[in-house]
Amino acid sequence: MSDQAISLIVGLGNPGSEYAQTRHNAGFWYVERLAEQYGITLKKDNKFNGLTGRGNIEGQDVRLLLPSTFMNLSGQSVVPFCKFYQIQPQAILIAHDELDMNPGIIRLKSGGGHGGHNGLRDIVPHIGANFHRLRIGIGHPGSKERVSGHVLSKASKTEQTLIDDAIHHALGNTKLLINNNIAQAMNQINAYKP
To answer: Which of these is catalytic: 24, 117, 132, 150?
Structure first.
């Protein structure tokens, strides 16, 4: 995957206040905090079924996108947005919750499949898999049957603190991430220990 500066950061989650604090919205939390850190306003954009913003992050012109479709329809927002602005997958970072990692674990990864994630599953067939992912651990409930209830419920106070701290760590490495030092950003972010 060729190194290209990140020009679009997408957070995955579900719209609506009843989902705002649920684990599945970890990707939203990251982008919302990033927007706050860099003074970028996220506005409703009906054209792309989402909240969008644009601003200067560490010297780069970056667009932010939070789809307002439900998670399993994330592609209906991400795909037209990328096509309209002609953004290549290599220039995209998608932040999302990750069941296979415990709360407090955060990983930056480039490429790969959808790993069973419903949001990614709706995006990969349309833009390919060559984008970067920020995987935010939320832990696994232990059985497949309990996954849906787990991702759509709030984390315990302890777990939430672990998730917030991991996101905070990733935000601290934004400069590396944005300025095309993906390998370095990966080393820094992936070395994080709660």
So the answer is: 24
